[in-house]
């Protein structure tokens, strides 16, 4: 499952690029923003899963962002750091629309990505928001 982690990292990076610079979705899905040597080394399964996450999150952005917003306590959506937001969007998309993936795996993966790419406390914040989304989606 290491390739799934790498795919999630690619998807997180793509959503960050999309949010920060407005990179077109078609360019994100082609991984044109990835160094050519690294892009050539990506296996097909990894690219397929990353594309699914990227396209799914962008296509369902309104629902994803609404879920994130509804679980922010004493924090506004606009104040979210772009790195945290990209990780949250990937995690929220998975929790809401990829029901075949166990929620705990989605949350654990987001936490690990946040520990690597986020600020010191990002992983705690992301854990709390995604846990809230998961619990709320289980009620439905």
Keywords for this entry:
mainly alpha, about 140 residues, 8 helices
Distance between the termini: 29 Å
Low-confidence stretches: none
Radius of gyration: 14 Å
| Elements, N to C (H/E) | HHHHHHHH
Task: Count the DSSP helices.
Answer: 8
Structural class: mainly alpha
Q: What's the overall geometry?
A: globular
What percent of the residues sit in helical stretches (DSSP H or I)?
Answer: over 70%
Beta-strand percent range:
under 5%
For the largest beta-sheet, the strand count, sense and barrel status come to: none
Count of distinct strands: 0
Oligomeric state of shown chains: single chain
Instruction: Estimate the mean pLDDT confidence.
Output: 91
3D architecture notes:
By secondary structure, the protein is mainly α. It is 76% helix and 0% strand. The radius of gyration is 14 Å and the shape is globular. The relative contact order is 0.14.
